Structure formats: C-alpha cells, structure tokens
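Supplementary Note 3. Input sequence used for the single-chain structure prediction.
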Amino acid sequence: MKNPYEVLGVSPSASESEIKAAYRALAKKYHPDKYTDSPLADVAEEKMKEINEAYDEIMNSKKSGSSYSSAGSYGTASSEYYQVRVLIQQNRLDEAERILDSETGPDHKAEWYFLRGMCYFRRGWMQQAAQYFQRANQMEPNNMEYRQALENMTRRQSYGYGGYDMNGSQGECGTCDICTSLMCLNCLCSCCR
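The predicted structure, written as discrete structure tokens, is reproduced below.
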C-alpha cells in the first residue's frame, strides 16, 4: 500500500487543516460523479477509493497518536515480511519467493498468503493469485489490503481476463493454442517450399 501522505501530497508533519484541504482538493478532482460517462470512470473510482483510505488512515493515526514509517512503503516497517514487500515492489519475484519458501511449516500467516498471491499476480498467474488472496482474506477478513486485492482479482475475472494458470490451463487466454498453431503453420510452410 502506498504511503498515505504521498497519496494526499502532504508531509507527515502537515497539520490537520492542511490534510483536510488536500483531501478536499483531490476529492473534488477525482470524484466519480465527474466521470459518469467517461472511459476513465473506473480509474477515477479507484483513485477516489485510494484517497479516502489514505485520509482515513492518517486521521485514525492522528487520533491514536501512532506514526507512519518513512521507509518507502507505508505500514510495513514493522512487518516481518517487509523485505518481501520491497522485493515484490522492485519486481524481484524470485528472491521474494525464496524468502517465502524458506518459511517452513503448514501454519503460515495471512500476510504470507497475501504476499504469495502478489508474486503470482505480478507473474500474471491470476488463478493462483486469487486462491492465495482468498486464503489471506479468510484468515483476516477485516484487513483492507487483503480485501482490496481479492476484490481486484474478482473484478478482473468477471471482465474475462483469466491470465495464465501455471498448472497448464488458461483462463480466457489461448496463448498455447496460438503458439501451437503458429508452429504447425511454420512446419507446413517449410514442407511446402
């Protein structure tokens, strides 16, 4: 998840009135009602959701007196999986998976399932990603990050984008069929010369 201060474009030392002003300006700019008949409606809705969550997180932290990490990724500095999150953000998926695989035992935490799902998602293996996101969501149903990942996957699947299934089948994608057809065509062309 992005740093909520970066989402709102304010510094961590910003006053409550500065935070509210930044929130209002962004809400005015990205409110979905402005994009009703626009192809950007989905993008505006996602951006508005991100803005609302960032605002809520900042205001809740100010009320509770907690602070945010400035370590580059919001809310993960204290996480035992911080390094995995950084590697996933850098698209160094093999390294991230090695760390996840090094954790033995059947009792993984919800965050482990979420991060495994993120690795699959980044690789385009949507069915596997959805399974891991579902597991993380079942374990911690109140975690917004896990819930958003699952909702995103559900939305993608309902629009017909199945991605690649590492077990050998595809969702809506016929990539292997295309490759096989091209190889057969190439063989026929070579033989007919």
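The chain is about 65% helix and 0% strand. The CA atoms of residues 32 and 42 lie 8 Å apart.
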